[in-house]
Amino acid sequence: MDAKEVLTHVGAIDKAMKEKLPPSALIDLLTSLKKGVVATEKLLRDTKVGMAVNKLRTHSDKAVSDLAKEIVVKWKQDVGQKSKQPAARSQDKSRATASPTIAQNPIPSPKKGESKSRVDSSKGSAKEDLVDLAITGDATRDRLIGVLYNALCLESDATPDRILTLAKSLEADVFINHKKKLELPYKKRIQTLYINLKDKKNPNLRKRVISGEISTGRLATMETHEMASEELQGQYKAIQEANLRESMVAKPEKSISDQLQCGKCGKKKVSYTQAQTRSADEPMTTFCTCEHCGNMWKFS
């Protein structure tokens, strides 16, 4: 089945859903797709057939949902096998040129149920990996798990199962830390994690999380500066050291007067310093700070 035929089937599925046609109509379309489509990453991306079928996994009719699940599993296997073909051809070529006296070990076939690696680590997302995000029963939480998945899978060779496990665990830790309330602080925390994990200039953070060096529980509570790249952390450290040096430098003593009155709060507890800011024959400039409200002003 070529891309044009697949697009026709996608349109027919959308029409059947909108017009609420009987489940038998969807079953006929799905059966045709199952028999006629050998999935490739390009076909799934160009026709969006994977998204159309994936939606039917939660269909109210069990026969439709079961068939949709079977197709998704089949297409995942098709895409995974396609990604391994170039490597297999390369190995076959190298074996053909190897010395005949060297024993050739067969390439082990993947174990049953083993997750396939993602095809293109630079373009991955929950949709392209056909990940089922119907997890918690709450649409907001499931959507944010997908957001974290998209950040973690960037430039990663980890399997979708591994990335999904981390995304679910991270969201659950944040949810618990915010007393299981879907309020603004919870959403802002997920947004902060997404921005830092998605940062292309900070790939080390993603790698440390996926490798398990940083647990999801730890990541859920890390401050922004702790998640920053090594370059940014160096800048933060330089700023802190500069502030420390500045705090150790002697500053001119401030005098406190009860003769000066703050024009903002009316209090008469005002500290002041004086400096010659103009020519020597001009009066000194007095810099004032209200010790009560912090208002600052100057006069000559």
Automatic annotation (TrEMBL):
SMART domains: TFS2M, TFS2N, ZnF_C2C2. It is found in: Nucleus. Residues 258-298 form the TFIIS-type domain. One of its GO terms (cellular component) is nucleus. Residues 140-255 form the TFIIS central domain. InterPro entries: TF_IIS-typ, TFIIS/CRSP70_N_sub, TFIIS/LEDGF_dom_sf, TFIIS_cen_dom, TFIIS_cen_dom_sf, TFIIS_N, TFSII, Znf_TFIIS. Residues 111-123 have a biased composition (Basic and acidic residues). Belongs to the TFS-II family. This is Transcription elongation factor. It comes from Sphaerosporella brunnea.
